[in-house]
Design brief:
The complex is a heterodimer. Chain A is an alpha+beta fold. In chain A, the strands form 10 sheets. An 8-stranded mixed beta sheet of chain A has the order 7-6-10-2-1-16-19-18, with no helix packed on it. A 5-stranded mixed beta sheet of chain A has the order 21-22-23-25-24, with helices on one face. The chains are: A alpha+beta, B mainly alpha.
Chain lengths: 648, 254
């Protein structure tokens, strides 16, 4: 117990061992910020290091040959990199660097300027191809002597960041700025395992240590600013103002500044909520705040603890800067409200807000490594999103004729995936074809966790997440940490289920392959070796039916499953099958014909890849819906024909 | 109102146009409903109509491609058929309906010229509409006010409707001239009184169509077979009246 306590204490030390003190000035005309940054870092491991890697993510936007640009093809969620003009690109340039007060600029190099960067062991050897040059998303500071365990070092960096025209999370549009990944950020040192530092990839996001941040941001006087942390002071000069934010225990710092922002505020328990929205979105404020509160409540229930900070900022970027939308940072996220006309039944904007807020748990506080285990934040958080949305709204799409919740979306997405990958891979290891990354990092964990919830029951399932959060908040949990909690809380089968979800392509697919209901024929032939009398009036016993059902397990998991039979007289009959030996036949007699046979009627196995084969219907009930659908489509064609032939 | 009464009196022309609409409906509805019923009836979706039906049945394999190709080809065929029928309709509007064989003969005779007229008037209409769309889009794109895209969308649609009416007016005049002269003739003249009457009928026809489509959708998206039938009938009534008003606008220029 004592040993465990010491391990916990040591592993939580990095949160106290890193300090950023940044002072920058925004130049809206040049789309730049410039300033100084002082990083104080303590080596809390038992291993010395002679390099300090810095993430310089903004250099991913500096040309069309960076890892990010090459992997993304200059596109991100439908937005394109602006390569027509130089001002469309961005960068983060270090112009001076001091180590413990002494000039050390000569010890600093951008990764791709080094002759053999792989030999440093800073990033994985297979995450870069030789044709990608130059990529300056990592900077290396070589120390003149190794920094021993327990020692601290102070880096004073003078830097300039030019924002790209926003298309992927960060950048500018006219006078709007979204500052994400804008400053040199030190990588995570893991002792014997070395530095955990990766190039900026298209599909992965970020991983950093918890730190104390103090950020002073100087902007034109008419700008409105939203940021991570708490506003500590605001001073004004002739044309500018300087806002200083500070906060403990976050692993990133983001801000936004715009001279058109409008601000709405609200409260949830101890949390002051800020919404920064563009003019014209006044009508969406209530929806956005409701979604944010739904998220706060939903994740508190899922993880067992309320959001601990006293402030949260939701940014609703203008559509012209939609590339900045749908992104998470500690205490500040960006949502996306495509139009003030978005129907109330289309809750996609709400789902984005809930999802991005949720990252303050799965990424913010449970700071897993997004580069290497995207499912730990995107997958768990996508489950959290569907959970919170269902809890508050029930459906994401809510029309009388079409209803869909987050679990439906996840199952549809996951079951469409036919590729070779599985979730337990580093982000850049997924095949670029077939939507593997999104389906496996987001959708598969979502629908498998829903299945686990159904299998274990809500109480036991929530116990897993409560334990996981309590044990690993403000730390860097690994997949094994989570699997350990699952095993400890819910047993071997649950752990095996999650492990196979992560590291195999094993799927669940139960099917009803035969369902026949026949009237019992009259007895013919010999009875006790003598001809049986034939009652011609009773050629068939119309009140008795012989029913046969054959079910199959076409998947890889052998779990027990229930089968339900519905008869024409309204009665039902249930069976259970252990799911073993591939298939099973059920036979029974009844006084009414069978109407349908369904396997897993309660959809316990929510991740079943095919619903179509889960039942055989002998008496269709949905004919009217099918006819309506056909009428609807046909009339739509009529309407389009009429509109397009207006001038004929 | 005189033009409307005249068209109503000789309602066979409206009926011909409406029958084409109905044929389009049936050409799409019959294969679709057969497919939907066949694909769902014995399965899970024969008992539960859920959103999963769309990806599991419709989007599986080449289902979506097949349906898209079928719809595009059907659409194209009916588009050409509409241009074809207009030859007989315009001939009848100038004189009077003289039986279906004569109608078909006139349709066939004027089809190549009408096709040329359609292309000649459609291309500048499309270009101008695109320019209007691009300009309003650019204004919306540069405004920080997020209500601006909505405003610009309304402006863009209004411009498109006005342009459609203007070009339709020229197109209609050209078709009358073409029939009377037995050779392709163009028109770019606007005669105020006739134009306003024409525009009023055209706008009324579109408004009527949209209103009935909306009503139809309200019925169709709610449960019940009765409402389904009502939804279908409402849409068809809307189409019939829309064609009636459209022909009245043409009659005004005959």
């Amino acid at each position: 117990m004592k040993k465990l306590f010491l391990i916990l204490l040591v592993t939580s030390l990095p949160a106290l061992a890193l300090d950023y003190n940044i002072s920058i000035t925004l130049n809206p005309k040049e789309k730049k910020i410039s300033g100084t940054e002082t990083i104080t870092w303590q080596n809390t491991t038992d291993t010395a290091t002679d390099v300090l890697p810095l993430h310089l993510y903004m250099n991913g936007f500096s040309n069309n040959r960076s890892v990010f640009a090459m992997e993304s093809g200059g596109k991100h969620r439908g937005n394109r990199m602006d390569v027509k003009e130089v001002k469309g690109f961005g960068y983060c340039k270090i112009s001076a660097l001091q180590l413990n007060g002494e000039d050390a600029m000569s010890a600093f190099h951008y990764i791709s300027d080094l002759p053999n960067p792989e030999s440093l062991g800073v990033f994985w050897k297979d995450e870069i191809s030789k044709r990608i040059r130059p990529d300056r998303t990592i900077g290396i500071v070589r120390l003149s002597k190794p920094l021993a365990p327990g020692e601290s070092i102070t880096l004073k960096i003078t830097f300039e960041t030019k924002f790209p025209r926003v298309f992927a999370r960060t950048g500018y549009w006219k006078s709007f700025f979204m500052g994400g990944q804008w400053f040199p950020k030190i990588a995570v040192f893991q002792g014997e395992k070395g530095w955990n530092c990766h190039l900026f990839h298209y599909r992965s996001e970020f991983f950093a240590d918890f730190a104390h941040y103090t950020v002073a941001l100087t902007v034109p006087k008419n700008y409105v600013v939203g940021a991570t942390g708490y506003l500590k002071s605001e001073t004004t000069a002739e044309n500018t103002k300087t806002l200083t934010f500070a906060v403990d225990n976050v692993h990133d710092f983001a801000w936004t500044a715009w001279d058109h922002w409008k601000v709405a505020t609200d409260n949830w328990k101890h949390v002051k909520l800020f919404l920064l929205y563009p003019p014209g979105h006044e009508g969406t404020v209530q929806r956005q705040m409701e979604a944010l509160k739904a998220a706060l409540s939903g994740y508190a229930e899922l993880c067992g603890e309320d959001y601990p900070y006293k402030k949260f900022t939701l940014v609703d970027p203008p559509m012209q800067a939609s590339g900045a939308g749908g992104m998470e940072y500690p205490m500040l996220v960006t949502g996306m409200f495509p139009s003030p006309l978005t129907p109330v039944g289309v809750r996609i904007p709400e789902a984005v807000i809930v999802h991005e807020f949720g990252h303050n748990y799965f990424y913010g506080m449970l700071a897993s490594n997004e580069f290497e285990n995207a499912w730990m934040d995107e997958g768990m958080n996508s489950f959290g999103t569907a959970y919170a949305m269902e809890r508050h709204y029930k459906y994401d799409l809510d029309f009388p004729f079409l209803k869909m919740d987050g679990f439906d979306e996840a199952r549809i997405g996951y079951s469409s995936y036919k590729g070779p990958d599985f979730p337990g891979k580093a982000a850049w290891e997924f095949s670029p074809a077939g939507g593997g990354y999104s389906n496996l990092s987001y959708n598969k964990p979502t629908i498998y966790f829903r299945t686990l919830e159904n299998m274990l029951g809500k109480e036991k399932f929530l116990q897993i997440f409560h334990t996981y959060f309590a044990k690993y908040k403000f730390r860097h949990p690994t997949p094994e940490d989570f699997l350990g909690v699952v095993k400890e809380t819910a047993g071997d089968q649950a752990e095996d289920f999650v492990r196979r979800m992560l590291y195999t392509r094993d799927k669940i697919d139960y099917a009803v392959t035969k369902a026949v209901s026949r009237q019992t024929p009259p007895f013919l032939g010999l009875k006790n070796f003598k001809a049986a009398p034939v009652d011609k009036k009773k050629t068939k016993d119309k009140k008795n039916f012989q029913n046969t059902i054959i079910v199959e397990n076409r998947g890889d998991f052998q779990y027990p499953v229930s089968i339900e039979v519905r008869l024409k007289d309204g009665s039902t009959k249930s069976f259970t099958w252990d799911g073993k030996n591939g298939w099973h036949r059920f036979e029974f007699d009844s006084t009414s014909a069978m109407k349908m046979a369904i396997i897993d009627p309660k959809r316990v196995y929510a991740c079943d890849v095919s619903l179509k084969n889960n039942a055989i219907t002998l008496e269709p009930q949905t004919g009217s819906s099918m006819t309506k659908l056909a009428i609807f489509v046909s009339q739509l064609v009529q309407l389009v024909f009429n509109i397009s032939s207006l001038s004929i | 109102m005189k033009a409307l009464k005249s068209v109503l009196k000789d309602h066979r022309l409206v009926t011909i146009l409406y029958l084409q609409e109905l044929a389009l409906f049936l050409a799409v509805f019959i294969p679709l409903t057969t497919w939907f019923h066949a694909a769902s009836s014995k399965t899970y979706f024969g008992t539960f109509f859920t959103v999963d039906f769309f990806p599991e049945i419709l989007a599986k394999g080449s289902g979506l491609l097949a349906i898209s190709t079928f719809l595009i080809l059907t659409f194209l065929f009916f588009f050409l058929l509409r241009i074809f029928l207009m030859g007989g309709i315009f001939d009848s509007l100038i004189g009077k309906y003289a039986g279906f064989p004569h109608f078909l003969h006139e349709s066939a005779q004027h089809f190549p010229r009408f096709l040329i007229l359609f292309l000649v008037y459609s291309i500048p209409l499309l270009i101008l509409t695109a320019i209007a769309g691009k300009t309003t889009g650019s204004i919306a794109q540069n405004s920080p006010n997020q209500a601006m895209p909505v405003t610009m969308m309304l402006v863009s649609r209004s411009i498109a409707i006005i342009l459609s009416i203007v070009f339709s007016f020229w197109h209609t005049n050209a078709r009358f001239k073409t029939i009377l002269n037995h050779k392709t003739k163009f028109s770019l003249a606007i005669r105020g009184k006739f134009f306003l009457g024409f525009a009023a009928y055209q706008l009324a026809s579109v408004a009527f169509l949209l209103l009935f489509t909306w009503l139809s959708v309200q019925f169709l998206t709610n449960a019940g077979t009765g409402l389904m039938v009502a939804g279908f009938l409402l849409m068809q009534i809307g189409l019939y009246v829309r064609n009636l008003l459209k022909l009245a606008s043409y009659k005004l220029l005959s």
